[in-house]
Amino acid sequence: MHKIMAVNAGSSSLKFQLFEMPSEDVLAKGLIERIGMKDAVISIKTHTGKKHEEVSHIADHDQAVKMILEFLISLEVVKNLKEIYGTGHRIVHGGEQFTGATIVTPKVLAKIEQLAEFAPLHNKANATGIRAFQEAIPTAKTVAVFDTAFHQTMPPASFLYSIPYRYYQEHKIRKYGFHGTSHKYVSREAAKFMNRDLKDLRIISCHLGNGASLCAIKDGKSIDTTMGFTPLEGLTMGTRTGNIDPAVVPYIMEKENMSAAEVIDVFNKKSGLLGISELSSDLRDVTSAAQEGNYQSGLALSIFIKRVRETIGAYAVEMGGVDAIIFTAGVGENSVIVREQVIDGLQFMDIKVDKNLNESNENRGSTRSISSFNSKVEILVVPTDEEVEIARDVLSLSNQG
Ligand code: AMP
C-alpha cells in the first residue's frame, strides 16, 4: 500500500488528491485558490468526513504546499510526510519529448520549463508545483504526467498542418492535442467494462466539458484528436471558438482595431457557447434558455452538437469503423440532451441510443452503457478521473524505478 498525491498546479491555484494505492481510495482532496493574494481560499476534505476551510494570505506555491501538508497531518490523514510515497504532477505541455509519464529529474524539470514556450502560463505553474512539493517532501518520488503525451502516437498525417513543412521542422508547429490523461483513462475503463482487449477496439472518446475534445483510439493508442497546437482548435467549447478560418484574425483586427493577441483572447475567452448565445458558457444555462425559445442559445447548442457529431463520423471513417463511443467530463457525463442529439444523427451507421438508459439516473458516477439493444456500437458514459490516472502512472513508474 502506498499513499500517492495527484497534483494540478495552476498559476494561482493548486488542486490535489491523496490516494491509497493500488486500491485507489481517496484519502483526502483539496483546493487552494487565489494563491498570491490576501484572501486565498483553502479547502480540504478527508475520507473520514473531516473538513478544513480557511481564508488567509498565502504568498506563493511553497506556502500553499506547506499548508496542505500541515493540514494532512493535523486532520490525521498522515502521521509523517514520509508516508507520501510519490507525487504525480499534471503538466499541460510535453512537446514531442514526452511520450508518457516520466520520473522528474533536474533535466526533465528544465525541459518542462523550456516547453513553457508552447504553454506559457501552464507549464511554468506546473513546474512551480513540482519544486514546491520536492522541497516539502524530498523523500517522495516525483512523476510528471503530460496532457499531450497520449497523443504522441498520432501519425504525421494526423498531426501535421498543411503549411510549409519547415515550420514543423524549425518551430515544431504541429497538432499536439490535450486531455490525453482523460482520453487514456476512459478508454481503458471502457475496455474493462466491455470485457474486451483494448487492442481489438476502435474507440471514439468524447471529452465534453468546458474545454472539449474528441479522440480516435485504435489499439489503445490515440491516432487523432481535435485539439491542436493549442487547446483552441477543434470543437466549439464553453468560451473557445474551436476551428475557424485563420483569415478571420486580420479581418477582426482591422474592423475592431485590435491586436492579434486581443483577437486570440476573444477566441479563447469570449467565444464558443458564450459567444454565440451571448448568455453563458455553461451548457446548463444554454440548454434551458434554448428550451425556453432563446434563438441564440438554440443555435449555440446546435453548433456544439453538430461539431461533435460530424467529428464522430470523420473518426469512424478514419478507423474503418467504430466499436465504442464514450461520453465523459461535465457535459458528456451529465447532459442527456447532448448525448441524445449527437447520436440521433448517427442512426444511419446503426449507432443507436436507448432513451430510457440515457435518461436514467441509475449507476450515475460509474461506467454505464446507454446504447440500444440493436445498436452496432457500444455507447458508454464513463466518468473521467484524471487524478486516478496520474496516481496509477506514479505507482507503475515508481515500481519500475
Ligand atoms: P467540466 O469542464 O468537465 O467541469 O464541465 C463543465 C461543463 O459541464 C459546463 O458547461 C457545465 O454546464 C456542464 N455540466 C455540468 N453538470 C451538468 C448537467 N447536470 N447537465 C448538463 N451539463 C452539465
From TrEMBL:
Substrate binds at residue 90. It is found in: Cytoplasm. Mg(2+). Can also accept Mn(2+). The keyword Acyltransferase does not apply. The record marks 179, 240 as: Transition state stabilizer. GO terms for biological process: acetate metabolic process; acetyl-CoA biosynthetic process. Keywords: ATP-binding, Cytoplasm, Kinase, Magnesium, Metal-binding, Nucleotide-binding, Transferase. It catalyses: acetate + ATP = acetyl phosphate + ADP. ATP binds at residues 15, 207-211, 282-284, 330-334. InterPro entries: Ac/propionate_kinase (IPR004372), Aliphatic_acid_kin_short-chain (IPR000890), Aliphatic_acid_kinase_CS (IPR023865), ATPase_NBD (IPR043129). The active site is at residue 147. It comes from the Bacteria. Its main location: cytoplasm. Mg(2+) binds at residues 8, 386. Its EC number is 2.7.2.1. One of its GO terms (cellular component) is cytoplasm. Pathway: Metabolic intermediate biosynthesis; acetyl-CoA biosynthesis; acetyl-CoA from acetate: step 1/2. Its cofactor is Mg(2+); Mn(2+). One of its GO terms (molecular function) is ATP binding. Belongs to the acetokinase family. Homodimer. Catalyzes the formation of acetyl phosphate from acetate and ATP. Can also catalyze the reverse reaction. This is Acetate kinase. It comes from Brochothrix campestris FSL F6-1037. The lineage of its organism: Bacteria, Bacillati, Bacillota, Bacilli, Bacillales.
